[in-house]
Amino acid sequence: MAVLILLGAKQIVFSQSLTITGSIVEKTSNEPLEGATVALYQKHDSSLVKGITSNSIGSFELTKVKPGNYFISVQFIGFSTYTISELQLTENKNLGIINLELSDVFLEAVSVTEEKSLFENKLDKKIYHVAKDIMAESSSAVSFP
From CA 131, how far away is CA 144, in angstroms rounded? Predict the structure, then answer.
């Protein structure tokens, strides 16, 4: 009888569906960060379990999570990654306010240029730009033997 009760209790625990909540803000201004990525990983093999982005007020909610050992990574472009390396989940968990700091790594500027294509299609005609043709830059017909 005791064995059946223990097996039943184990079944209830493992079929639980838990929720992880929290809010993400910029550390110095306390402004909410919309679109920050929250990823939940299995602790034992680092496999991704679930992911979500924060809403317009910086809040997030990971639902239907099974009890277990996890870690969480919070990322946002231009900010340092925030990691909770040990999260043992046995009940619903509110992580509270997560403060992200601006990253010290800055990317260099990128210059985007556009070149006119060799052909241009208009409604009533097709335009051929001779100056863009590679043959226009090469030798003339006189130089060929």
Answer: 21
Is the distance from CB of 26 to CB of 34 less than 8 angstroms?
no
Taking alpha carbons only, the member of 103, 54, 95, 56 closest to residue 72 is: 95
For the cut 60, the answer to whether the pLDDT of residue 7 exceeds it is no
For residue 99, CA distances in Å to 30, 33, 93 come to 8, 10, 17
Query: How many angstroms separate the CA atoms of 145 and 135, rounded?
Result: 17
Q: What is the Cα–Cα distance from 78 to 26, expressed in whole angstroms?
A: 11
On whether the 2-100 domain is CATH 2.60.40.10, my answer is yes
Task: Flag whether pLDDT at 135 surpasses 90.
Answer: no
Residues 66-124: tens digit of each pLDDT? 999 999 999 999 999 999 999 999 999 999 999 999 988 766 788 888 776 777 787 88
Whether residue 56 contacts residue 72, with contact meaning beta carbons closer than 8 Å, is answered with no
